[in-house]
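Quick one: structure for this chain?
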Amino acid sequence: MNRVIGIIGGMGPLATCDLMTKMIHFTDADTDQQHVRLCVDSNTNIPDRTEAILHNGADPVPEMVKSALRLQGMGAEVLVMSCNTAHYFYDEVVKFVEIPFLNMIDQTALYLQRKGVERAAVLATDGTRDSGIFERAFQKAGIQTIYPSREHQKVLMSLVYDYVKAGNFALDELPLWDIIHQLRESGAQQLVLGCTELPLAFQKIGCTEGVVDPTEILALSALHFVGAKVKKEFDWE
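Got it. Here's what it folds into:
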């Protein structure tokens, strides 16, 4: 029997599908039966995480816990969560479950450390940025964190909420390459796409060099955890 990965999803729905797609794409399998079994709760009742962190919005933890327990009850042997900002609440959720729960932020820091990265830029929502979750994990790994300017941060928030989440991919309207060049000139060795909507946008504009996708790292980490066979061209262990 194939081992089971549980995905706490719905944050957002496209990002959830992206995580699933990466797991399937990275698996070295010739038949359906050689793929891992995925249990997914695309729980769109989970309130917005940035609103909760910065503006006293509705608490997302109760719905996240419901999803975690639902997946555990479905037979999941390990949990993952398809939202960077949601990891601000990781410690509050993990105490309710009895199975391992991989942390995407920690896995990303470990990956960068293994690659010898000393300075990394984090592109993320206001909630992720201001919560410091990446910065704390990177500091433990000996990595300096670089952020976009506040003007560019507004562009990123619009990209996430007004474009990708809204299904609008007219990205030529946004100065994304200006942001990329500014961060690289600031000394960033890698650009960490710290919001699960950003990899979708960066693929659309053709920016794939020197970028790190935490969703990709999480997908590979989960596959390794359950002992799945990973295609050599994608494996980083």
